[in-house]
Amino acid sequence: MSSTPLVSVIMGSKSDWETMKHACDTLAQFGIAHDKRVCSAHRTPEAATEFARTAKERGVKIIIAAAGGAAHLAGVVAAHTPLPVLGVPMKGWALDGLDSLLSTVQMPGGIPVATFAIGKAGAINAALFAVATLGLADAGLAAKLDEFRASQTEKILAETLP
Ligand code: RP5
């Protein structure tokens, strides 16, 4: 794995890690260099904007941003970088993540955030989407994704019910 992170995974709180570790595990499974950090649009606004402003010059290609509740992190980051930002809404504590989903997905036209499912599925799929995107310019990585999907299909087809 190269040491320069191609994907940065950020989250609004350490409490998001239990979910977002699934994104990092998926990236690691494909050998994609990535980093991870807590970075809040509300509690560390300067750090969040500084992170976003400098991401491209650090060599990052894709940002995965997770937050819960009034989940502004992905949108704030997207406002400060031209890099693709993949938003993952966290399940949260009050509204089962519907609040996070709506505040991540409902970006006004002009600054996009590609928003994934709430929670673990979104974390995994954001990482797989990053793999697919990086695979456009990396045939080896694209082949690994093909293998992953074929093996997933085989596994499901082999399943039996009691
Ligand atoms: C958001 O608030 C975080 O992304 C997290 O999902 C939520 C709750 O954070 P904690 O109060 O657990 O730190 O900013």
Automatic annotation (TrEMBL):
Keywords: Isomerase, Lyase, Purine biosynthesis. One of its GO terms (molecular function) is 5-(carboxyamino)imidazole ribonucleotide mutase activity. GO terms for biological process: 'de novo' IMP biosynthetic process. The keyword Transport does not apply. InterPro entries: PurE_ClassI, PurE_dom, PurE_prokaryotes. Its EC number is 5.4.99.18. The keyword Isomerase applies. Residues 5-156 form the PurE domain. Gene3D superfamilies: 3.40.50.1970. It catalyses: 5-carboxyamino-1-(5-phospho-D-ribosyl)imidazole + H(+) = 5-amino-1-(5-phospho-D-ribosyl)imidazole-4-carboxylate. Coiled coil: none annotated. Pathway: Purine metabolism; IMP biosynthesis via de novo pathway; 5-amino-1-(5-phospho-D-ribosyl)imidazole-4-carboxylate from 5-amino-1-(5-phospho-D-ribosyl)imidazole (N5-CAIR route): step 2/2. Substrate binds at S13, D16, R43. SUPFAM superfamilies: N5-CAIR mutase (phosphoribosylaminoimidazole carboxylase, PurE) (SSF52255). Belongs to the AIR carboxylase family. Class I subfamily. PANTHER family: PHOSPHORIBOSYLAMINOIMIDAZOLE CARBOXYLASE, PHOSPHORIBOSYLAMINOIMIDAZOLE CARBOXYLASE CATALYTIC SUBUNIT. NCBIfam families: purE. Catalyzes the conversion of N5-carboxyaminoimidazole ribonucleotide (N5-CAIR) to 4-carboxy-5-aminoimidazole ribonucleotide (CAIR). This is N5-carboxyaminoimidazole ribonucleotide mutase. It comes from Paludibaculum fermentans. The gene is purE.
